[in-house]
Structures are given as structure tokens and as C-alpha cells.
Design a protein that fits this description.
By secondary structure, this protein is of the alpha/beta class. The protein is 36% helix and 24% strand.
Length: 124
């Protein structure tokens, strides 16, 4: 079966991936190093990729969108209710995947590098 939705929990060096198919059955649970992420997603069919919204998520959103994936940046307060168990990377990736599968969950638009630069100037 084909992976339709992926939850990607990003951090400094190790990223956690959780992928499900159309009925919601888990097909993929994997850790990736930073250097492996783009190669991994380049080899996947285009799908929905959910990422918890933060400053670096916009960079990853731009990179994954360039590979043909539909990226949804989801605010933390919408991901938190879907987390099962303790707070760790694997549970976070699964919660992001669950939140990305809900059509009513609001997502943040991916900002360009210029928009992020202007925003940081504005906040300073």
C-alpha cells in the first residue's frame, strides 16, 4: 500500500517519521539523520507531510514542497491533543500525522526565506 500522510517531527540532528496509508494503518516508523531527510522524501511518491510549526519548519516545508509533497505546518496547540503516551519524538510524529489527517485542523502557510527575514526584522 502507498503512504498517503506522513508526520515529521523535526529537531537538530535526528528526525522522526511516521507514515500511514489511506485507512490510517501505520506503514512507516523511522528515524532519519538530517542529511538523510531530503534523499528519503525524494524517493517517496508525493503525499501529505505534516510538520509542527516552528521557525525551521518553514525551511523544511519549502524543501519538501519542491519535491512535490503537500506540506502542512500545524501549530503546536493543534498537535498536542492527538499525542498518546509520553512526550517523545516517535509519539510527536504520530500525533502530527493524526493532526495532518484531519481536514478541519488549521495549518500555517509556508513562508519564503524573504518573508521570514522581514518577520524577524519586524519582531526585532
Amino acid at each position: 500500500m502507498q503512504i498517503t500522510i506522513i508526520g515529521l517531527d523535526i529537531s537538530k540532528s535526528v528526525f522522526q517519521v511516521h507514515g500511514v496509508n489511506e485507512p490510517g494503518e501505520p506503514l512507516l516508523r523511522r528515524q532519519l539523520r538530517r542529511r538523510e531527510v531530503l534523499r528519503f522524501f525524494a524517493n517517496l511518491e508525493p503525499c501529505v507531510v505534516g510538520i509542527e510549526a516552528c521557525h525551521s519548519s518553514h525551511y523544511w516545508g519549502r524543501e519538501l514542497s519542491a519535491l512535490g509533497h503537500d506540506v502542512r505546518l500545524i501549530p503546536t496547540q493543534y498537535v498536542r491533543p492527538f499525542r498518546r503516551g509520553g512526550k517523545n519524538d516517535a509519539n510527536d510524529a504520530e500525533a502530527i500525522c493524526d493532526a495532518a489527517s484531519r481536514p478541519a485542523i488549521h495549518s500555517v502557510a509556508v513562508k519564503s526565506a524573504e518573508q521570514q527575514a522581514i518577520q524577524s526584522l519586524h519582531r526585532t
